[in-house]
Amino acid sequence: MRFLFEALNAARLVHGLVPVLLDAALKGAAVLVLAALAATALKRASSASRHVVWALSLIALCVLPVLSAAPVGWPAPILPKSPWSTMAESLAQPRAISDPFRAEVDPEHILAGRSRLETAGPSEQLPRARSSSLLLGLANWIVIVWAGGASVVLARLAASFVGLSRRRREGALLTEGTWISLAEHCARRYGIRRRVSWRLASDGTIPATWGFWRPAGLLPADALDWPEQRKSAVLLHELAHVARGDFLVQTLARLACALHWFNPLVWYADRRLRRESEQASDDLALRAGLAPADYASQLVEVLLAVRREREVPLSALAMARRNELEDRVRAILDGRRSRSGPSRRGIVLMALPAACVLFLFGLIRVEARGHDAPRLERLPEGMTIEILGISTYPSEKPTWWGPDGTPLAEAPCDPPTAKPMGAGPEVRVIVARIKGIPEGSKLTWHPTQCHSQRISLTRKGGRPVADLQTVIGEFQRGPATCDLHFDLSFGEWTVEQTWDGKMSLGVSKEERGFFLGKAREIRDGTALTVAHNIADAEMRLIAIGEDGHELEPRYFGSGGAGHLSGLDAEFSVPPGKIREYRLLSRRVGRYDIKKVSLEPAAR
Question: What is the dihedral of CA 429, 435, 436, 437, to 10 degrees?
């Protein structure tokens, strides 16, 4: 299990798959509900028409995860704000929340169950924190459980393919005789140009077909002795599946079941698809000239003839199964039932607009309404923020440009010596001059759409410059601009939550959620971790000693991923000498600088 966790995290699957799964699950449920409504509206239409509806919906479910994982899309903050609803977005969109002491949490390591906090300074290296977040550990289990369920469904599908391959090898190939001549005649009637190979099973089995490019049919051992009328009924039904391409459609439907196995609607849709497929093939056989009463009687006779029925593999298209015989016979004998299916042109005309709608629908990013800090329309009196320059990194001769892309003649600072956390394809250095921060307040800032780390000491000409601040951001290829969020915390501290630290627990208060870790004894004190979803306040951890005095942490670090943030603290006394822990907060206002250019303008 540990190896599997490490493999998933090494490939960055966890924080990528969870939001994709949740997004595709919500959209998939919506697609299936719409399909059910459409099928109900087509209640009086033919089975072939309803089959097209279910087929398109299940094929759409195969495509949705791909669209959900696409690097482009439109955010749709339609989910209610809650402590849990922003989890997917948090895992997918990492960001930095730095403070004067420590800088950054690497989201990949958070998701692996261990947070890695690194210093903001250029030279010293902080040891890895010894704590983990319970919430982000849950992301591992979401992926593991989903992958396990999908593997079971895919294993059953693969086993059915193996069974069909074995049946093909074991069966005796029919090359001549009345079966072959009759099969060729029926194939010509349906316009089938592919050659269908027919094999005779060594035991009793229900007639079935499978395959798309090289279709094959399986007949029971006593099929050679059947009367002509039964042979025609069997061939017309099984070749109807071949003509309609049902094997390919049902294979794609089973893949949809594997991807969305946790959704009961997908299994309902799969059952309806198979039911409509059988009845549509019955309709096609009846349209070929068979009398309904004779066809129904032959269907019953086929099942009665196979006394010791051998299980037909899941992916095969059997002529009949005992659990659906009654509905099939009733539909065959219903003279008022529509049996005319849509033409190929009609199917294309249905599929094209559905594909366009699916493409646009799939690119919508379903997410929770944000918990962002309240906007500051203007900065406090006397405070100024100026973006001095942006540059590529690393580079032997860095090119600097202003926030509007205008090239700069002179670099605003020395190149930073800190290395980026990872190996993002587009790394940028952003330098700002910040003056006049109100006394007692604290300012943190980060660019959007990237992993970022703040450099606490910015130099020019080898000398530290107090009012210059630098951030290194790792962007994915694509965005030409980014926004900068400046969060200014101020005001009095208030208590958000208290707990004794004897056990880990989760607490929900309306839109706010806390994941409070268990206090752990370390060599020279106590370590503690907290995760929360509060973006409109600065958070702080303190402890209350046995004597009632407030204990400040000797080390305090913070970091975040999307709307989820983490705090790590260490106290100089053991857990036995701490009465309780307190999570404090104070107000934060956000000031934005928008559309900062990530590329220099053309000269």
Answer: 10
Burial of 414 (0-12, 13-18, 19+ CB in 10 A): middle
With beta carbons less than 8 A apart as the criterion, state whether 55 and 249 touch: yes
Euclidean distance between CA atoms 279 and 339, whole angstroms? 9
The rounded Cα 69 to chain-centroid distance in angstroms is 7
Q: Residue 370 above 90 pLDDT?
A: no
User: What does the alpha-carbon distance between residue 218 and residue 216 come to, in Å, rounded to a whole number?
Assistant: 7
Token representation of residue 240: 């109807």
Lowest mean pLDDT among 71-85, 171-185, 227-241, 242-256: 71-85
Mean pLDDT, residues 16-26 taken together = 77
Between 4-8, 259-263, 295-299, 323-327, the lowest mean confidence (pLDDT) is in 4-8
Rg (CA), the chain: 33
Measured in whole angstroms, how far is the alpha carbon of residue 259 from the centre of its chain? Answer: 10
Sheet holding 426-435, edge to edge: 400-401, 384-392, 426-435, 468-475, 450-455
Note the pLDDT tens digit of each residue in 287-325. Answer: 888 888 988 888 888 877 665 445 555 556 666 666 677
**For 109-143, how does the pLDDT look when each residue is reduced to its tens digit (9 = 90+)?**
333 333 333 333 333 332 333 333 444 456 677 78
Q: What's the pLDDT at 420? A: 62
Which pTM does this prediction carry?
Answer: 0.61
* Burial class of 426 by CB neighbour count within 10 A (0 to 12, 13 to 18, 19+): middle
- Measured at the alpha carbon of residue 511, what is the angle toward residues 509 and 515, in degrees to the nearest 5? 60
322 token code pair:
């005992």
Q: Which residues contact 588 (CB under 8 A, 6 or more apart)?
A: 373, 374, 487, 488, 489, 490, 535, 536, 537, 538
CA distance 388 to 408: 9
Collapsed DSSP state (helix, strand, coil) of residue 187? helix
What angle separates helix 47-68 from helix 264-287, to the nearest 10 degrees? 140
Q: DSSP strand E in 201-337: where?
A: 208-210, 216-219, 317-318
Continuous segment of H or E residues that includes residue 368: strand 364-368
Task: Read off the tokens for 25.
Answer: 């699950």
- In the chain, what is the straight-line distance between the N-terminal and C-terminal CA atoms, in Å? 55
Tally the residues of the chain: 603
For β-strands 512-516 and 525-532, DSSP reports them as antiparallel
| Three-class secondary structure of residue 14 per DSSP | helix
